[in-house]
Design a protein that fits this description.
The structure holds two protein chains of two kinds. Chain A is built from five helices and five strands; from the N terminus they run H-E-H-E-H-E-H-E-E-H. Chain A is of the alpha/beta class. In chain A, strands 2-1-3-4-5 form a five-stranded parallel β-sheet, sandwiched between helices. In chain A, strand 1, helix 2 and strand 2 form a beta-alpha-beta unit. The radius of gyration of chain A is 14 Å and the shape is globular. Chain B is α/β, with parallel strands linked by helices. Chain B is built from eleven helices and seven strands. Chain B has a seven-stranded parallel β-sheet with strand order 1-7-2-6-5-3-4, sandwiched between helices. Chain B is globular, with a radius of gyration of 16 Å. Chain B starts with 12 loop residues before the first strand and ends with a strand. The chains are: A alpha/beta, B alpha/beta. Chains A and B meet through loops of A and helix 10 of B.
């Protein structure tokens, strides 16, 4: 019952460049079994997550963003539910020291990210959840 | 916080799409030794303004000046990509030394320590000035970086003392702030103080 209630799985893309967030959203929408949301404001993304966290499977966030950076956002996301997949994306070369001991994200993607790679990563991390749900659907 | 708090009654908000030349004119008129501030809601609108301003500065103003652009929310390559369609020969200007584009985090970070320090920025600016044989330096810096570094109070001191810090440099500055960072990191009083440190304020809408 709960499984059915939490399907499709929510995924959000957070990037202060709205065009990019929309581009990623459109690409990921091809994956069956997920609903994708695009946000250019991390505070709005966090609010959406707070309200709907039970349905969330993955949050993909840019690193450098106004009002809250990707690390701060994903840390708050994981505080609410540590099971949710956090993906950090950045166009900048990230020094390992910056993220040393940071457990707020599961994988890092360097921009430019190919849509194929992005879709593959989301499928990889949500794989079982999407497959189980898809098989349950009539 | 009321997002209009830093919009003094006598100050317009500028739509960059139809007032971009007016904005550039205002910024070009700021005298040497002073700095201006631009509050921007998003990168799309900021790009219209900085590309026009840089082009005007390179085309019409002091031909011996060096522009030092320190972006934060976009990479140096992205800035180049934005500037090229405006007709700026970015490669030629970079080769000549009239345009230098560096990630502001690099300007703040000592090569040895990898830890960003506010005090590093004026040193970096002075080094660029010295390396360019004392040409006038036009510094365009996205100061939103200080929000991410949680250095808002240090930032106020820095902005308030910039004239003294850079007194040996022939410079003028354009400080860029994302509005959302201002609202998140500064109180109303601090935001008003920040604006007062600048010769010219341009708030984009």
């Amino acid at each position: 019952m709960d499984r059915q209630k939490n399907f499709p799985v929510f995924v959000s893309v957070v990037d202060d460049e709205l065009d990019l967030a929309l581009l990623f959203r459109d690409a990921l929408s091809q994956i069956p079994g997920i609903d994708v949301f695009a946000f250019s404001d991390p505070l709005l993304a966090l609010e959406h997550y707070r309200v709907n966290h039970e349905r969330y499977g993955c949050v993909i966030s840019d690193y450098r963003m106004p009002s809250m950076n990707g690390i701060q956002l994903l840390t708050k996301i994981k505080e609410i539910n540590s099971e949710v997949t956090g993906m950090l994306i950045s166009a900048f070369q990230i020094d390992d020291d910056t993220f040393k001991n940071c457990e707020c994200f599961d994988t890092f993607l360097q921009k430019p990210v190919s849509m194929k790679n992005l879709i593959g990563k989301v499928q990889q991390y949500l794989g079982n959840r999407i497959k189980i749900k898809s098989n349950e659907s009539p | 916080m009321d997002s209009m708090f830093y919009d003094p009654r006598n100050q317009d908000r500028f739509n960059p799409r139809d007032r971009v030349d007016e904005i550039s004119d205002r910024l070009l008129q700021v005298p040497i030794g002073h700095h201006s501030i631009i509050l921007y809601p998003d990168l799309a609108r900021l790009r219209i303004v900085y590309s026009n301003y840089i082009k005007a500065q390179l085309d019409d103003e002091d031909p011996t000046a060096t522009i030092l652009f320190l972006p934060y929310y976009e990479t140096s390559d992205k800035v180049r990509e934005v500037l090229v369609p405006t007709g700026i020969n970015v490669k030629a200007h970079e080769k000549r030394g009239s345009l230098i584009i560096v990630d502001v985090m690099k300007a703040l970070t000592s090569p040895g320590t990898k830890v960003p320090h506010l005090e590093r920025l004026p040193n970096f600016i002075s080094q660029v000035y010295d390396a360019n044989h004392d040409k006038t330096l036009i510094v365009i810096a996205d100061m939103s970086v200080f929000h991410n570094l949680k250095m808002s109070l240090e930032l106020l001191d820095y902005e308030g003392n910039l004239h003294k810090t850079l007194e040996t440099v022939r410079w003028k500055g354009l400080c860029l702030y994302n509005e959302r960072d201002i609202e998140t990191m500064l109180t109303e009083e601090h935001a008003t103080r920040l604006l007062s440190y600048h010769k010219e304020s341009v708030i984009l809408n």
